[in-house]
Specification:
180 residues, 8-stranded antiparallel β-sheet, 4-stranded antiparallel β-sheet, alpha+beta, 3 helices
C-alpha cells in the first residue's frame, strides 16, 4: 500500500505541471470536433480544445494519463490512473484526498464523505472536494471504480469561474469513457 501512496504523490506532482507529451494513441473520432484516446486499459473521446498532457506507465501495472483544457488561463483537468489489480475503491479515493491535503499550494481543502456514485454508467465510489489555490476557488470530484481486471481512479478539477467553459470537455470524456 505504501508503494501506491508514493505513486499518487508522483502523479499529483506531475498533474500540477503542464508538460506536453507526444501521444501516439490519439486518433480522430467519428465526430470531427473530437479526438479519441485508445489505450491498453481504457479509451475515451475528448474535444479539440483539450489535450493529453501526460501518458505514461508510472511503474509496472500502473498507468497515468492527464487531459487538460488548452489555453493559458484554462483550469479543466482530468487525470486517470489505471491499476492492473483490484484495489479497494475507498482506499483509492482516500489516497487522492491525502495527496490533496499534502499539497502545499492547496488551501482550505474541504471534501465530502465517500459515497456511491456513477461514472458513465459504471458504479463508483466518489468524493467531491473544494479548495483554493492562487486566490481562485476550485472544485472537483474523485471517482474510483473497477473494470474486469483493473481498478481506476479519476480526478476531475476546475476553477469555479471555468465551470461553464469546461462542462463540454468533462461531459465528452465521461460519456465516452470505456474500460477494456
Amino acid at each position: 500500500m505504501k508503494s501506491h501512496l508514493l505513486i499518487f504523490a508522483l502523479i499529483f506532482t506531475m498533474s500540477s505541471c503542464k508538460k506536453k507529451e507526444n501521444n501516439t494513441n490519439t486518433v480522430p473520432s467519428k465526430d470531427s470536433a473530437e479526438k479519441r484516446f485508445e489505450g491498453e486499459f481504457f479509451s475515451f473521446n475528448y474535444p479539440e480544445d483539450w489535450e493529453i498532457t501526460d501518458n505514461e506507465e508510472i511503474e509496472k501495472g500502473v498507468y497515468y494519463l492527464s487531459v487538460e483544457k488548452t489555453g493559458f488561463d484554462s483550469s479543466g483537468l482530468m487525470t486517470i490512473v489505471s491499476f492492473n489489480e483490484m484495489i479497494d475503491l475507498d482506499d483509492l479515493v482516500l489516497m487522492n484526498i491525502e495527496e490533496l491535503q499534502n499539497n502545499p499550494v492547496i488551501m482550505n481543502l474541504k471534501f465530502e464523505s465517500i459515497s456511491n456514485n456513477v461514472f458513465n454508467n459504471i458504479e463508483s465510489r466518489a468524493s467531491n472536494f473544494k479548495f483554493s489555490t492562487l486566490g481562485l476557488k476550485h472544485e472537483g470530484l474523485i471517482s474510483a471504480f473497477q473494470g474486469t481486471k483493473n481498478s481506476y481512479v479519476i480526478l476531475k478539477q476546475e476553477a469555479l469561474e471555468d465551470t461553464i467553459k469546461n462542462a463540454n470537455g468533462f461531459s465528452t470524456i465521461e460519456r465516452s469513457f470505456e474500460t477494456k
